[in-house]
Amino acid sequence: MRPTVRAWNLAGTATVLSVRPDGYGHALAFAPDGRTLATSGGLDGSGQLIDLATGASTTFTGHGGGIEVLAYSPDGTLASGSVDSTIRLWRDPVLTLEPRASYVTALAFSPDGTTLATSSERAVRLWDPASGRHRATLFGPEEHVTQLAFSPDGRTLVAAGHDGAVRWWELG
After folding, report:
1. What is the pLDDT of residues 129-152, one digit of tens each?
2. Which domains does the chain carry?
3. Which positions does the entry assign to WD repeats (predicted)?
4. CB–CB of 45/19 below 8 Å?
5. pLDDT tens by residue, 43-92
């Protein structure tokens, strides 16, 4: 059974768009301009970009397993993390980051787009998305990280763990 993605006008109750992407639709992310929605695809490692004005979709492929998480940078670069233990930055050229750990459980870009935080198990890694250079590894909650978020000024990173713990770091 294919999932249905629906968009609503919050000023009312009317559905403004209803599409059925391929795959299981596990992860979603809006592009910064609000015109495109990225969705994860199937176990084949594909995803879809859905034009919210028309409902038309474009498939992107490259992972060796299902996409678990998606995030857009402020400049519109899409990041995807997969059960194949890779992170891909979808731009020209595509940049693949390999944290050498289990599958990727969370992604977040800093508000200025200069840092990408990723998590695998209980480690949080900070990357330079322009070069792909690994900057630092931070250790978070006792169980795997389920969510990452930067503060609006980008100086604080917060990680939530499967164990219910929340950990934060002052990045400077």
Report:
1. 999 999 999 987 677 888 999 999
2. 5-170 (2.130.10.10)
3. 60-90, 97-137, 138-172
4. no
5. 788 898 988 888 888 989 989 898 999 999 999 999 999 998 889 999 87
pLDDT at residue 16, rounded to an integer: 61
Q: Which three-class secondary structure state does DSSP give residue 46?
A: coil
- CB-based burial label for 41 (10 Å; 0-12, 13-18, 19+): buried
What lies within 8 Å, CB to CB, of 95 at 6+ separation is: 88, 89, 129, 132
Q: What mean pLDDT is predicted for residues 33-47?
A: 87
pLDDT at 122: 75
What is the biggest distance separating any 2 CA atoms in the chain, rounded to whole angstroms?
47
DSSP 62: -
First to last CA, the chain: 47
From CA 48, how far away is CA 46, in angstroms rounded? 7
Token digits of residue 114:
């200069």
Parallel/antiparallel/unpaired status of strands 145-150 and 134-139: unpaired
Rounded-to-integer distance, Cα 101 and Cα 113, Å? 24
